[in-house]
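Appendix B. One record, verbatim.
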Amino acid sequence: MTLPPLEYSPLADPVRFLAGALEIHSPSGQERLVAQYLVRGMKALGMEAWVDEADNARGVWGRGPLQVALVGHIDTVPGEVPVRVEDGKLFGRGAVDAKGPFVTFVLAAAGLPEELKDVFTLHLVGATEEEAPSSKGARFVADKIKPSFAIIGEPSGWEGITLGYKGRLLVRVRREKDNFHSAHHEPNAAEELIDYFNSIRAWTQGFNTGMRAFDQVQYSLRDFKVHPVDTRQRAELFFDLRLPPRLPPEEAIRHLLAYAPPTLELDFSGREVPYQGPKDTPLTRAMRVGIRKVGGRPVFKLKTGTCDMNVLAPHWPVPMVAYGPGDSTLDHTPVEHVLLEEFEKGVAALRAALEHLARAPGGAA
């Protein structure tokens, strides 16, 4: 695919700019073309911009001492949603998760008053492989930016401010044993894995008793395979756990190993630490001001998923929230779309929040 020429200002036609990003297919690992498109847009808006070694779309606005990171991912899950505008909605894969939030960042930054360039340095990162366990883009910039504040681009609804995301642990379990006749009473390899998964399910149900959703462990069986039998039986299952702040990955691993008989082989990956930030910081106060200025009623949220906030929070011990227009229940669905009015309000609210942060970074709302 060849990039079309950018013959307009993204600020003058923001919907067209976002639609152009949605039209570029960019599942995890294939983001370079959309990164180039977004860089072209940031350059047209007067920013220094480039595609870095991780294929991130990078941009910088301003030259001031107040460092703010705006990180939103530009990869998507597989599957295309035809890009179109219908009934005030822009459809397309990534409209809410999360090209829409990142384009919101770009447009909000570009419309700030010029005098704030001496106050701010805004680091825009359109990150790669967030939808994959690698989180390649976020990990690449983790030690390259030293922000005072960070905003992660994820759909919160334009009036929502997300304070936290659950952590994650991916678990692969294997069992291999000598084959035997099916008339024997001994459980086969697949049955042993099923018994183990049922024991983990029972553990999580007990762990979750009386807890709100954000404080519960969630489990999801992702794959189960029984390999053709010769002289050996081989079976494999793959599941993930979503972890609340009271259960970091290493503690979860301790429980998983305790329930596993020594005949099972366990591998762990995707270890993301849960994160929940405070409600009252200069950043949350600025976000509330910005949302109210556009006529909204700010609401704090906690999400049961995982995002680049989990990756970056251990590296950036600074006030951090996630923000972006869009309904997160539409993530990964065949009808993914963002309301155009919400997209426009999200841009305006974030711009007002950034301006407040620049003018009164320690002030109260």
